[in-house]
Write a structure and sequence with these properties.
Blueprint lengths: L3 H14 L3 E6 L13 E3 L7 E9 L7 H17 L4 E11 L2 E5 L12 E5 L2 E11 L13
Parallel strand pairs: 2-4
Antiparallel strand pairs: 1-3, 3-7, 4-7, 5-6
Amino acid sequence: MNLRPALAALLLAPLLLACASTSKVMLSQARPAIDPALVQVYASPPEGSIEIAQIEATSAAGFGTQGQTDAAIARLKREAAALGANGVILMGVGSQRAPVSVGLGGGNYGRHGGVGLGVGVPATQKQAAGMAIWVPEPAPMVTQPRE
């Protein structure tokens, strides 16, 4: 009996549960998608902005690094861009525990027996919440010629 596929599935299952994700609640109609590099992050809504969706994103499991925070915010920007939003109002960033466990099992195979081993690794995921918005381009300033 080949145990490799079962062992690989057992080892990968906890990692798949701790994957990064995004979610959204639509508040108005989406616009055509844009490049995520064009999405600006705001602390408060700019004048004239239109709410498109509430969005949330999580990073992959890790150890609470700044890189995880950056990854969660980048996911927010990608989700906003996919909705055609050119801005995100950052509502908050936090952490949640994401236990990643690795387990190995055993059993009796004929006259041979095996033992199990389990290891728990404390890990966290960073969460970011925001509001995807569309900010109209400011009207160009018209200057009057001096007399």
